[in-house]
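Record 1 of the preview.
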Amino acid sequence: MSNTTKYALETSLKKLLLQKPVDKITISDLTNDCGISRMAFYYHFKDIYDLIEWVCLEDARRALQGKKTYDTWQEGLQQIFEAVIENKPFIMNVYRTLSREQIENYLFKLTHSLLIGVVEEKSAGLDITEEEMAFIADFYKYGFVGIMLDWIKDGMKEDYGDITDKLSITLKGNIANSIQNFSLRP
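->
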């Protein structure tokens, strides 16, 4: 039942965001729209921003299901773009109303999750620490998120398939090379 309530609130939030900016949506708007009590809302979330963060992480989890391996990471990037496109009104509203930082945090979590899976897989059996693996994933995460933030800022007009192809060409062999360089350090 708990997840049902959360998903109902997610649906209401996304519906209401088509009508008004996030800073004009109240807890009452959400609870009235999905037919739950204010107490039920506060049982799950401390405020609307907490709900937004949960929605972002849920979207991320759904977008990346099973796409965190070396062979599927490009598909994972494509699915991140698709998740953002599917939630364009939500993303654009949050981007315009809240802060670039909140969208960055959402994209950082999404992308780090994808990249750390790839780095861990390619690091198997090599002399590389967890900290070094996290550093590599973070390094590539920042580049990807920067590209995606520019795409969002420009209204998501460029074909994300083209962006994914360029990222794939740019990154080809580089993650494995970074891991190899760390494992061979003196």
